[in-house]
Design brief:
alpha/beta; 4-stranded parallel sheet; 13% strand
């Protein structure tokens, strides 16, 4: 069996990349070091903010850094690439075209996973850059899934949780978060997409229900293990 090495584009933010690496290790059914997934990880924390550029709040385009890292990973010899940032998938096509190896889409894998597990209507929690460019909305349409996004006022609360709490190294305001989730459920959502890797950290820190929440980073970790010809643990 060919040994497969994964290239991980990380640092977007750094703690989400640490969590992703730990998640892959924890989820791999391995009895020895050699049964784990080989990974090469970049931690380009200085990559310009994706949402700020998308929303016109910054002229610093992150695509050059993202493409550069993807090409460096390809030159290193990885077999496929994963990107540990949902919002960075706004640049997915340019990243994908810049290399000659597959680039896994966290957005596509998450929506596909939600559909395969019987969810009918997804509430989308993600950065404003992600929401405004309709990354998850368009993918839901592609997979014939219903979806619901928050109004601007509630969306600002999501950004406060992501940036003011988690990215700042503070505990997430769970009272604020739970009110947003209640609003999504009141609007018929039977699944909540955690479409920002910082929200994956929130899920882990607060032991949130696996049946309701579709954790994009967890989905990516599972697919990373599977596509590396390794086994995922049964929970």
């Amino acid at each position: 069996m060919k040994n497969i090495t994964v290239g991980v584009m990380g640092g977007l933010g750094p703690m989400a990349s640490v969590y992703f690496y730990k998640m892959v290790v924890d989820m791999t059914d391995a009895k020895t070091d050699q049964e784990h997934v080989d990974m090469v990880i970049t931690n380009r924390a200085t990559t310009p903010d994706r949402s700020a550029y998308i929303l016109g709040q910054s002229d610093d385009n992150p695509v050059y850094t993202l493409v550069d890292d993807a090409q460096k990973l390809e030159k290193f010899g990885v077999d496929f690439i994963v990107i540990t940032c949902n919002t960075a998938h706004y640049f997915y096509d340019k990243i994908n075209k810049s290399v000659n190896i597959p680039v896994l889409s966290i957005v596509e894998e998450t929506v596909k996973y939600a559909k395969e597990n019987g969810h009918k209507k997804l509430g989308i929690l993600a950065t404003t850059g992600n929401i405004k460019t309709e990354l998850y909305q368009n993918m839901c349409k592609r997979f014939d899934m219903e979806y619901f996004v928050l109004d601007d006022e509630r969306q600002e609360k999501v950004m406060e949780i992501i940036y003011d709490d988690i990215k700042s190294g503070k505990p997430a305001d769970m009272n604020k978060f739970n009110k947003l989730v209640d609003h999504l459920k009141e609007n018929g959502c039977d699944g909540i997409v955690l479409g920002c890797t910082e929200l994956s950290i929130l899920k882990n820190d607060n032991n949130l229900d696996n049946d309701l929440y579709i954790d994009s980073l967890e989905v990516l970790a599972r697919q990373t293990i599977t596509k590396s010809n390794r086994k995922v643990k049964n929970y």
